[in-house]
Each structure stands twice: as structure tokens, then as C-alpha cells.
Amino acid sequence: MAFRSISPTKSIKKPAVLYHYPCPDGALAALAAHLYFSASSTAALFFPNTVYSPLRVEELPLDEIGDVYLLDFVGPPGFLLELSPKVERVILLDHHKTALEMLRDEASVGGNVIKVIDMQRSGATIAYNYFKEKLLGGNVNDVVDGREFTLRTFERVRHLFEYIEDGDLWRWHLDDSKAFSSGFKDLNIEYNVRLNPSLFQQLLSMDLESLISQGRVSLLNKQKLINEVLGQSYEIALGGGAFGHCLAVNADSILELRSELGHQLANRSHKMKMRGIGAIVYRVPELENDQLLKISLRSINCEDTTSISQVVFIFSFACDVFACPLAMSYKKFCDPLQEFGGGGHRNASSFMLSSAEFERWKVFAID
Q: PANTHER family, alphabetically (predicted)?
């Protein structure tokens, strides 16, 4: 379905912001863009963008768009190549390893593409720094008082961005970081600004101390739920054994806790002499396909999950859809198939897989 703004202006091109959804890191990146454009009263267009069903170029109101910002998600392979010739500029702010690899493969991207990829920061803080520096650079054609007010707002919410990054990169360096993350999740915010027009105001009005206080309480309850699910873990052969073995759990009942669950599962898997990877298995209701599973991998130490997520997904999809023999190289299917979802960070990535294929991965104990 193509997007259209409520009151299209033909004469003035608007900036479009495509941000990773549903993800707090992507939502905070969008907030940074919102602050910047609000300082100049610029009516930017915001589009939530999911990995499992990403926006296509033809779905965007290109006749209304000037610059396009891709925040925390570069889009599927080929998206940038198709989009860049049709808009004035594309500004990519991302931190995912798969984004870096994708751009390396798309060497022919035009000169109107600005890329900031930094795997040491999260998408939120990359956007925070980018838009704040842009504001300081005097690129906003607005009165000084308006710019100063926005700069003060940037500074006021700086800790919010830092906490989001700390959890997104799984560092937990900040005081009460896990309590903050728990309290933030408890708010159950809708990150789609088109469904929740008050999203940015909700984020700006957050009280960190209250979130941390609430989070301390909810952490204990969540750990009880995690312990129950961990007790139902089972062994799988990743990629049918091509990538070793690890533990997996079905997590439809506690989907919002999948990251913490995955890391605890990875630790348990490592202690059981398997790979330090935890596979969180669940269905995505929005896809309306019970036969398709999403597998979120979480890892510890130096375990790189992205190579598994990309290769396993492409190969299994090719075999299921194209009925290709196992001996056939998966590489011929890479370009058309990666758009269906496979990739992420070294320690956190995901892919889609048919339930029939996943059943073949399960390792059944022999009495």
C-alpha cells in the first residue's frame, strides 16, 4: 500500500525519514530527526520500516520527497540503488554489520548518498550526534531562539539516548541500565508514529528515575517468566548441523523478553558444551503465516550470528521455494532472497524460516 501525506504540497519537497520499526533504537533515531526538523518548522514525513516486510520504493510518495533519511535500517538489498536516483539525497545512519556488508556489495551507489555507519554506536546515538551537529552547524533556517530551545532539548534527553544505546548494544555499562530497559519496555509504547501521533512527545516527557524505579520491580517478575521458559529449552542443529549445535526455546508467550532470554539461553548453551548461541523461536502475527517462524539469535563472547542468519535463511528459503538440490550453491539466490530478512549484529541477528525446515533442525534425545 502506497503512503500519501494528508496535505501534499507539490511545490516544496519534504524530507522523508524511514526508521527501524518496531525498535526503541529506531524510534529514538526518529526522535532526533523530529527535533531537528521541528526547529525549522519543516514538515518531515516519517515512515516506520520493518525488516520482515520492508518498504518498497514504489510505496513512497516520491513526488513529495526531497531528501530521504534511512535510520537504523538500510532496507533490503537493492533498495538504496533503486531509491537514490529518484530523490535529491539519501542519508544513511546505521550501525548494523549487515548494512556495512550490503553497501560493500552495492559499490555503484550514487554520489548523492551520504553514509554514516558506526558499529560502536547505536542507531539512536548516531542520529542524535548527526542531527545535533547539523543543528549546531546553522543549517536550519530558523530564528536563533528556536534553535537554542531545540539544543537544550537535545541536551535534556541525552541520557535517554545513552540508556537506549547501552541496552541495544548489550553493554549494560550505565547504572541501573537493565532496570531502565525493563521499565521502558513496561510502557508498551507504539513506535509507529502514524498509529501513535504522540510518540515523540511521549519519548520527550519520560522521567528516567521513574522508569528505573518501575524497572527494578518488574525485572524480578520477568526473570521468573524467563526461568520458566529456559526450563523448556531444547537442542537444535543450526542449519541442519552446518553451524554446530545450540539451545533453542519457543518464545511466543514472552516475546518482549527475547533479548534477555536469548542471552541467558546462550550462556546455558555454552555451559552445555554447545555454541554460545541462543535461538529464540516465535511467529510474527503481522505476517499472517503460521508456517513461517522468526528465529532470533543471541550470542555471547566472540560468537558471530550474522553469518548464520544470512546464509541459513537464504539457503533454506531457496531449497523450500525453488526445490533446488542441496548441492546447489546458495549464492545464486543471494540477491533476490536477502530482502526477505536475514541479518543484524554480531551478537544479535535474526532470519525467517519455515516451520517444516525448523523441525528438521531439532535434535531428539535417544533414551
A: DHHA1 DOMAIN PROTEIN (PTHR46922)
pLDDT over 80 (residue 321): no
What gap in Å lies between CA 103 and CA 141, rounded to an integer? 32
DSSP character string of 135-172: HHTT-S-S-HHHHHHHHHHHHHTHHHHHHHHHHHTT--
- Contacts of residue 238, defined as CB under 8 A and 6 or more positions apart, other chains included, come to 244, 245, 246, 275, 277, 279, 308, 312, 361
CA distance 17 to 1: 18
The fold for domain 231-361 equals Diaminopimelate Epimerase; Chain A, domain 1 (3.10.310)
Give the whole-angstrom CA distance, residue 187 versus residue 217.
14
Predicted TM-score (pTM) of this structure: 0.79
pLDDT digits (tens, 9 = 90+) for 191-234: 999 999 999 999 999 999 999 999 999 999 999 999 999 999 99
Point out which residues pair with 248 in neighbouring strands.
234, 279
Length of the chain: 367
Residue 167 to residues 179, 181, 341: CA-CA distances in angstroms? 10, 7, 23
Closest CA to 194 of 12, 16, 14, 9: 16
What are 303's three cell numbers?
560468537
Domains in the chain: boundaries:
14-216, 231-361
pLDDT band at 27 (very low <50, low <70, confident <90, very high): very high
* DSSP secondary structure of 194-225: TT-TTHHHHHHT--HHHHHHHHHHHHHHHHHH
Neighbours of 277 (CB within 10 A): 27
Burial 15-33 (b: 16+ CB within 10 A, else e): bbbbbbbebbbbbbbbbbb
Q: Which CATH class is domain 14-216?
A: alpha beta
Extract the C-alpha cell encoding 65.
520527497
Please list the alpha-helical segments (H only) found in the chain.
Answer: 24-39, 79-83, 97-105, 123-136, 144-156, 158-168, 177-186, 199-204, 208-230, 258-271, 306-322, 334-337, 355-361
> What is the distance between the alpha carbons of residues 76 and 96, in angstroms, rounded to a whole number?
13
Of 136, 124, 158, 127, the residue nearest 39 (C-alpha)? 136
Cis peptide before 285 (omega within 30 of 0): no
